[in-house]
């Protein structure tokens, strides 16, 4: 093949390009609702990268606005229901609230016990009636949507938001990050559906939405972007979506922070210098945290099993879980009121629990000392684990991210205080163990080690704990190989249905040849000065040929014309036009070329057919329809 015939010319007339504008070949072959050629699934190139980044910025902007509104709605509903009506004010993280503390509310334990059930009932009715995929944490649903084409129903966005406000505003034990992951992914899917995007771009925008939703409420933009690309697989990473996810995350974080304030979640934390001698302690702590992580996953699964067997309607299951959680939470509050030497009823399991994490790091309330503190932290960790499992496992629309961090922080702080009591080392800071344990817990159960490390660094405001974090998360990641918070995670890209289909189609394209599939030539090459009207008559008589070669002054085929362009014009509009007016540079295919090569040239040229040539002779024509039929046949043979 000559160099000049390998690709379309950049000097081609603009009118020729306009007449030849056709959809990408990869979106023209569909079987069972899925593209077989998947040319749009190729890595993003610079021609569309700018468009994807622009769309990602739009996703981040919308997610930032809605994330701030969601955060405010949660704060207001929880303040009114749990704070004013039930008279309970839980300890809060430094950067978690924008409202002043309540004063003078009467504590009503019976109402506090019933509120999570009421919120669960509203959540259950909403999700069961309108969008069942909006029940539960939200992370698993977002992962499943990504691996099944990036499609999310429009109703998921409002249903998830309302159900999460009902669950968490009434004191349910769960986080807001899981719901915002699903809300963000729904925003990404909606933007991808409304704007001109390919299937691959829509999936990337879904990932960008996950990152944006996370960054809007958790305020770790880099960690959120890494998490969105890492959580999709157990042992893999969607690197292609990283840059759009980063841009969407930055946009969402900037907008949310400008509305809610730039304060970090736990405020300005004291420095935690790295002490190499403490690495064995961090390794031992990682094993303890991994054990707690396995317990959390097991508790979630157990609650799901039990709730499905209850003799109640499915929409009432979150209410039953909320009732059990409310009883547990009020029992803990009353126990802490009566505990000698403690008397800290603000330490409870209602809501996200970041105040407990603040306490674990060091601050927020005045704590007891010695082994009493170790026992208190361990009790809070166990109670938060059980309460979160009851809320999320029964189907309440609450996230599992915040409980993971809180439980991990409490376990790590208990371990750090116990180690300090046993070793008497003044360099040992329990707050540092709490921070490392947060990332260790979530990085292990969610199989997201890299993003967990970065998130903790962003929370701490420094990389002082980077080495112990890497060690602890690595150990937890290995120990928890068989335990996953997200059951929809495929192990790797090769195991994902989406990439499996793409790989099968790509293999079929690469193996199959065009020999025997091209159609014979019905219209001989025409002169470039032939009137267009005459060519239109020839095209109307052709049955399978949809393009025609054009001869130069020496009788050599150098150009070609798409017959669909000619047939689309009225005879009266052709006037004095000649074939040369619509001709473009000839691009041909070798007789032994693969279907992949033919599909690539068809997509590049924009022609509906290309000539199959050998020794300067045209043997026939191959186009979209011929390649499509061959791919269907090859794919069927490969899976039969």
Report on this model:
This protein is mainly α and 640 residues long. The chain folds into 2 domains: 156 residues, CBS-domain, CATH 3.10.580.10; 456 residues, Clc chloride channel (Orthogonal Bundle). Helices cover 58% and strands 5% of the residues. The strands form 3 sheets. Strands 3-4-5-6 form a 4-stranded mixed sheet. A two-stranded antiparallel ribbon has the order 1-2. Strands 7-8 form a two-stranded antiparallel sheet. The two termini are 36 Å apart. 54% of the residues are buried. The N terminus is likely disordered.
List the topology elements.
Blueprint: H1 14-19, E1 30-31, E2 34-35, H2 46-85, H3 109-130, H4 139-147, H5 156-169, H6 177-194, H7 199-218, H8 221-230, H9 242-260, H10 279-309, H11 317-338, H12 354-361, H13 371-393, H14 401-423, H15 430-445, H16 449-460, H17 466-479, H18 497-511, E3 526-527, H19 532-541, E4 547-551, E5 557-562, H20 563-568, H21 571-574, E6 584-585, H22 595-605, E7 609-614, E8 617-623, H23 624-639
Parallel strand pairs: 3-4
Antiparallel strand pairs: 1-2, 4-5, 5-6, 7-8
Helix pairs in contact: 2-5, 2-6, 2-7, 2-9, 3-5, 3-11, 5-6, 6-7, 7-8, 7-9, 8-9, 8-16, 10-13, 10-14, 10-15, 10-17, 11-13, 12-14, 13-14, 14-15, 15-16, 15-17, 16-17, 18-22, 18-23, 22-23
């Amino acid at each position: 093949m000559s160099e000049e015939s390998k690709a379309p010319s950049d000097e081609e007339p603009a009118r020729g390009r306009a007449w030849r504008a056709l959809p990408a070949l990869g979106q023209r072959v569909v079987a069972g609702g899925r593209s077989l050629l998947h040319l749009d699934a190729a890595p993003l190139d610079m021609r569309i990268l700018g468009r994807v980044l622009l769309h990602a910025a739009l996703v981040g902007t919308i997610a930032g606005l809605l994330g701030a509104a969601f955060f405010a709605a949660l704060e207001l509903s929880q303040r009114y229901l749990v704070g004013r009506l039930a008279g309970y004010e839980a300890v809060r993280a430094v950067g978690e609230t924008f409202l002043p503390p309540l004063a003078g509310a009467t504590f009503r334990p019976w109402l506090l016990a019933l509120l999570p059930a009421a919120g669960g009932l509203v959540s259950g009715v909403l999700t069961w009636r309108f969008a069942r995929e909006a029940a539960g944490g939200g992370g698993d649903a977002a992962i499943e949507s990504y691996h099944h084409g990036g499609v999310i129903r429009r109703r998921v966005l409002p249903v998830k938001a309302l159900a999460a406000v009902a669950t968490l505003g009434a004191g349910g034990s769960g986080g807001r990050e899981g719901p915002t992951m699903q809300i963000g992914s729904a925003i990404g899917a909606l933007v991808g559906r409304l704007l001109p995007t390919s299937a691959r771009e829509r999936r990337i925008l879904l990932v960008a939405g996950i990152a944006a939703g996370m960054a809007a409420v958790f305020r770790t933009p880099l960690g959120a972007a890494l998490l969105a690309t890492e959580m999709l697989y157990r042992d893999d990473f969607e690197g292609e979506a990283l840059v759009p996810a980063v841009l969407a995350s930055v946009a969402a974080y900037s907008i949310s922070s400008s509305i809610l304030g730039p304060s970090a979640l736990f405020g300005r934390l004291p420095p935690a210098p790295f002490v190499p001698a403490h690495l064995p302690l961090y390794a031992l702590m990682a094993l303890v945290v991994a054990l707690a992580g396995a317990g959390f996953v097991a508790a979630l699964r157990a609650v799901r099993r039990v709730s499905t067997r209850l003799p109640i309607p499915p929409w009432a299951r979150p209410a039953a879980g909320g009732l059990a959680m409310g009883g547990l939470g009020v029992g803990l509050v009353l126990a802490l009121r009566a505990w000698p030497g403690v008397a800290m009823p603000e330490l409870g399991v209602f809501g996200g629990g970041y105040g407990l994490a603040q306490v674990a790091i060091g601050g927020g309330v005045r704590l007891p000392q010695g082994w009493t503190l170790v026992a208190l932290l361990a009790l809070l960790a166990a109670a938060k684990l059980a309460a979160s499992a009851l809320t999320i496992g029964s189907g309440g629309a609450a996230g599992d991210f915040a409980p993971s961090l809180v439980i991990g922080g409490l376990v790590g702080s208990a371990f750090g205080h116990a180690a300090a009591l046993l070793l008497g080392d003044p360099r040992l800071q329990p707050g540092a163990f709490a921070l490392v344990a947060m990332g260790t817990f979530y990085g292990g159960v969610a199989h997201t080690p890299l993003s967990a490390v970065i998130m903790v660094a962003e929370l701490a405001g420094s990389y002082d704990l980077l080495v112990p974090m890497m060690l602890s998360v690595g150990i937890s990641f290995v120990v928890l190989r068989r335990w996953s918070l997200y059951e929809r995670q495929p192990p790797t890209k090769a195991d994902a249905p989406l990439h499996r289909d793409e790989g099968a189609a790509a293999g079929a394209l690469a193996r199959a040849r065009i020999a025997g599939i091209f159609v014979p030539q019905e219209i001989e090459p025409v002169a470039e000065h032939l009137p267009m009207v005459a060519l239109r008559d020839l095209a109307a008589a052709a049955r399978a040929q949809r393009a025609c070669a054009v001869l130069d002054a020496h009788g050599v085929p150098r150009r070609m014309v798409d017959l669909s362009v000619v047939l689309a014009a009225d005879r009266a509009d052709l006037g004095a036009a000649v074939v040369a007016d619509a001709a473009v540079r000839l691009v041909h295919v070798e007789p032994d070329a693969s279907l992949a090569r033919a599909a690539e040239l068809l997509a590049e040229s924009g022609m509906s057919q290309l000539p199959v040539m050998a020794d300067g002779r045209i043997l026939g024509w191959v186009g979209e329809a011929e390649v499509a039929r061959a791919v269907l046949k090859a794919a069927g043979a490969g899976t039969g």
